[in-house]
Amino acid sequence: VVDAHGLGRLAVAVARTPGTAIVTILGIDGTGASGRSVLIDGARATACGSGCYRAPAGAGPVAVSVDGRLTRFDLPATAPDATARVRRATAAYRATRSVVFDETLSAGVGSSVTRFTAVRPNRLAYQTKGGASAIVIGARRWDRENAKSPFVESTQTPLDVTQPYWTSISNAHLIAPNVVAFLDRSLPAWFRLTLGPALPRQMHMTAAAHFMTDRYVEFGGPATVSPPSR
C-alpha cells in the first residue's frame, strides 16, 4: 500500500506491508536523497538503497521524520486492490469529449493555480492566475506572458489532450472510501485519486519537486477552445 506527499522540497513516499514501512525520498533533481536521518514511528530507519529507508511500523498512521521534520501518512497497512477501478476511471477519462480542471502546482516553495480546458482531439487552453496563458489547436499554438500581452503564434506537435497524467498503474489500493492510491513507475510518481461513480473528482500527484493537485470541474461538457481574437 503506497502513498506520498511533499515535505519541503523533498518528495517522501511510503510503501507499507503489515509491520513494516519503506520510505523513499527524492530530491529536487529526481535522485534518491540518501544519508538522511529518518525515523519511522519513532524508530531509526536503516538504509535499503538510494533514498530508501526501512523500519518497523505500527498498525495505524505512519509517522515519518526526515532530518527532524515530521510528517504523517494516513494509510492502512492492508487495503483492497483497486487496479480494476483505476483502469475503468482511466478509460472513462480518455473517452470523454472534454475536461475542465483547476491545477495547483508547487515545487515546495510557493505555488501556482491554473485553469485547463481540454477538448478532444487536440484542443487545449490554460490560464495561470496572474500569469501566462496559452491556446493549442492541432499544430498551432498561441502564448502570452500575461493578460496585457499579445499572443505569439508558433508551431506545436499535436497533443492528445484527454489523457491523464498517469500511464502505468502499480500497487493500486482503496485506502479510504472512494480514494485510491497507486504508483506510476514510469515517471516515477505517486497518485492519490478521489473517485466519483466513473470519473475522478480530484487527483494529487507527487514526483520529484513536483507536487500537484487537480480538481476536476467538468467532464464532457460544452467547453470550447478557439484561436485568440485579433
What ranges have pLDDT less than 50 throughout 5 or more consecutive residues? none
Distance between the termini: 52 Å
Number of helices: 1
Strand content: over 45%
Query: Share of helix among residues?
Result: under 10%
Radius of gyration from the alpha-carbon trace, in angstroms: 20 Å
Question: Largest beta sheet: what is the strand line-up?
Answer: 15-14-13-12-11-10-20-19-18-17-16
| Alpha-beta content class | mainly beta
Largest sheet: 11 strands, antiparallel
By DSSP, the count of extended strands is 20
What order do the SSEs take from the amino end to the carboxyl end, as H and E?
EEEEEEEEEHEEEEEEEEEEE
Overall geometry comes to: globular
The whole-number mean of residue pLDDT values reads 96
Tell me what the structure shows.
The chain has 230 residues and is mostly beta strands. The chain contains one helix and 20 strands. It has one helix at 83-95, and strands at residues 2-7, 10-17, 20-26, 38-40, 43-44, 46-49, 52-56, 62-66, 69-73, 98-106, 112-119, 123-128, 133-137, 140-144, 152-155, 170-176, 179-184, 189-195, 200-207, 210-219. An eleven-stranded antiparallel sheet has the order 15-14-13-12-11-10-20-19-18-17-16, covered by helices on one side. Strands 1-2-3-7-6 form a five-stranded antiparallel sheet, with no helix packed on it. Strands 5-4-8-9 form a four-stranded antiparallel sheet, with no helix packed on it. β1 and β2 (10-17) form a beta hairpin. The chain is globular and about 65 Å long.
Features of this protein?
230 residues; mainly beta; eleven-stranded antiparallel beta sheet; five-stranded antiparallel beta sheet; 1 helix; 6% helix
